[in-house]
Amino acid sequence: MRLSRIKQIRFRWFSLCFNRGSFLSETDKVQCRKIALGKRRELHTNITHNEYGPNIRRFFRKWILREKAVSVIGLYYPVNSEMNPLSLIDILETHGKTICLPIVIGKNRPLTFKSWSPGKDLAEGHYGIPVPDNDKIMTPDLVICPLLAYDAKGMRLGYGGGFYDRTIRHLRKNKQTRYMGLAFSEQKSYHDLPSETHDVPLDAVLTEAGIRNF
Predict the structure, then answer these.
(1) 121 belongs to a structural domain
(2) Would the CA dihedral through 136, 142, 143, 145 be positive or negative?
(3) 8-state DSSP, 121
(4) 8 domain residue, yes or no
(5) What is the largest CA-CA distance in the chain?
(6) Is the pLDDT of residue 46 over 80?
(7) Which domain covers residue 29, as residue numbers?
(8) How many domains does the chain contain in total?
(9) Which of the pair, 186 or 204, is modelled with greater confidence?
(10) Of 21-25, 31-35, 81-85, 180-184, which range is least confident?
(11) Average pLDDT taken over every residue of the chain
């Protein structure tokens, strides 16, 4: 795998994303997301799955073998330039794990997770994202999420809807659900990302360079 190709695509941000901390205006936050999305698209276009996929699978396989208490895993159905977590399914199935996918049930509501496995029916959900076509509600022990960027503290820059933050807070009322981002290593910001009190930091991020715990 030619990791040097990933390193060649430098991940740089406009200073407005960092020099005012939590006092960013909504316009500035939108601009930050546009920049991060553009960089992720650049990475997605220039780096093939065959280059980064094997490393991600190798690191994740070692991790899941150690985490015996993690039995239900919430993945996501990738859209646009999101990293594809579905390539991890065979690893999860081999080790007897249950897979579920998230469903948007309403604005300002936490996500619901339903059981799913390859070959099972999918329906079109909110934003055109495929969702399981069944009534098997699950409570994940681990939620793997997409992101636009992450920083050294585990803060995640998402799309601005707050769905994953609400979901993790909701799930943790009853169990200590783990929260892992899936990304290219070059999506890391070397400055603190703007965050607010309701933002939930990641427990870990999985990249082609390894698993970073926070």
Answers:
(1) yes
(2) negative
(3) -
(4) no
(5) 48
(6) yes
(7) 21-213
(8) 1
(9) 204
(10) 21-25
(11) 88
